[in-house]
Design brief:
Length: about 400
């Protein structure tokens, strides 16, 4: 049975909106996803009935709030198949999760001359924290190159892994859509004693991700791309690594004892959760996980695969349009493209006039775009509520844009 898209769409209030008189066609899911009423209602119900700070009060609603927050952690643990809930740290998002590792693990373990291996298709969030670490420690950054189809070239991987303490790479590219061969890279990294961080921002919302099966050391992702609210993200880390790491932020909750001159740290996972956390957001995230789990990630992935295949077939019809990245079968549900003679922002503006939301720009992958000799591209990215008919509307609007700017 395919995904019941028409029924699913009823769950997303925003999808009944009109923009400029046209139905909203939301194709910017790689930037952030829309929220089903289950998530909105779970958060509203929490604020209306059980809201309080967590881990502090000994009164009923504080205990309810704590219980809800910790059960969200349990949900995430099961969702990515972590071994223990201590391995799930709540952060503000993928960016903060990666920064946490670069600081807390990196400052302790990286030394002058060590190699940190990234890929040329990383999001800025998985480049800049490592650049900052490399500057602090005088370490060396290296990059696995991509080829003309947006696939990683692993020919020299063994050589790149020489002297490498950690490799951090994206499971799925937010610009090419490429699903990277994580297991192969991880196997080689393991053989060299290199740790692995996976940026799963574009993977966890769209396919089954199992940290035990992958055998990664760290995994970072964001709630807002998987139907959940903004302001909360996840860092999975192997317990034995997290235990040895120092805290990232200092403050309330992450301590066991505080004295004038020193403090001792709380147990995992709270050692990494300083200050009042995003409590209602955790409640929303839990509802989002339930929603995704109910539909099934396998079906979601199949649906997105059929959308991206259809989109790429039809994009060939648009004169002067060039797509970047691998064939549809090697992608998650997104496609980036450009016209030689029309600026991506102009394309996006025409699409917006037709109610269609896409992202135009460098998608926070400036080095990737630079290597392609491009400043920007247009990106259409799909999710479980998108329908083929919306791709037809995209194609019509792109043809119109091409006609309009070439008049
Ligand atoms: N990419 C996009 O439009 P945050 O902002 O912390 O939730 O996620 C950062 C991030 C990290 N890695 C990858 C692969 C990503 O795609 C993103 C977010 C969005 O492509 C916003 S820039």
């Amino acid at each position: 049975m395919p995904l019941p898209v028409e029924t699913i769409r009823q769950d997303f209030p925003i999808l009944s909106r009109k923009i400029n008189g046209y139905p909203l066609v939301y194709l910017d899911n790689a930037a952030s996803s829309q929220k089903p009423k289950h998530v909105i209602m779970a958060m509203t119900a929490f604020y209306q009935a059980s809201y309080a700070n967590i881990h502090r009060g000994v009164y009923t609603i504080a205990e309810e709030a704590t219980e809800l927050y910790e059960s969200a952690r349990e949900h995430i643990k099961n969702f990515v198949n972590a071994r223990a809930s201590q391995e799930i740290i709540f952060t503000r998002g993928t960016t903060e999760s990666i920064n946490l590792v670069a600081r807390s693990w990196g400052d302790k373990n990286i030394q002058a001359g060590d190699v940190i291996l990234l890929t040329e298709m990383e999001h800025h969030s998985n480049i800049v924290p490592w650049q900052l670490l490399a500057e602090r420690k005088k370490a060396r950054l290296k990059y696995i190159p991509f080829d003309e189809k947006g696939r990683l070239n692993l020919e020299n991987l063994d050589r790149l892994l020489e002297g490498c303490k950690i490799t951090a790479f994206t499971l799925a590219s937010n610009t090419f859509g490429t699903k990277n061969p994580a297991k192969e890279i991880i196997r080689k990294a393991r053989a060299k004693g290199t740790l692995v961080l996976l940026d799963a921002a574009q993977a966890v919302p769209h396919q089954n991700v199992d940290v035990v099966d992958l055998d990664c050391d760290f995994l970072a992702f964001s709630s807002h791309k998987m139907l959940g609210p903004t302001g909360i993200g996840i860092l999975y880390g192997k317990k034995e690594l997290l235990e040895k790491m120092d805290p990232f932020l200092g403050g309330g909750e992450m301590i066991k004892t505080v004295q004038w001159d020193h403090s001792t740290w709380n147990d995992l996972p709270w050692k990494f959760e300083a200050g009042t956390q995003s409590i209602a957001e955790a409640v929303g995230l839990k509802a989002a996980v339930d929603y995704l789990h109910h539909l099934g990630l396998k079906k979601i992935a199949e649906h997105e695969q059929s959308l991206v295949r259809y989109a790429m077939e039809r994009l060939h019809e648009v004169e002067g349009l060039t797509m970047i990245g691998p064939p549809a079968s090697e992608r998650v549900g997104l496609v980036s493209f450009y016209f030689k003679d029309i600026h991506p922002h102009d394309v996006a503006a025409v699409l917006d006039r037709n109610g269609i939301c896409v992202r135009a720009g460098h998608h926070c992958t400036m080095p990737l775009h630079k290597k392609l000799g491009l400043e920007a591209t247009v990106r259409a990215s799909f999710y479980l509520y998108n329908a083929k008919e919306e791709i037809d509307l995209l194609i019509d609007a792109l043809k119109e844009a091409a006609r309009f700017f070439r008049k």
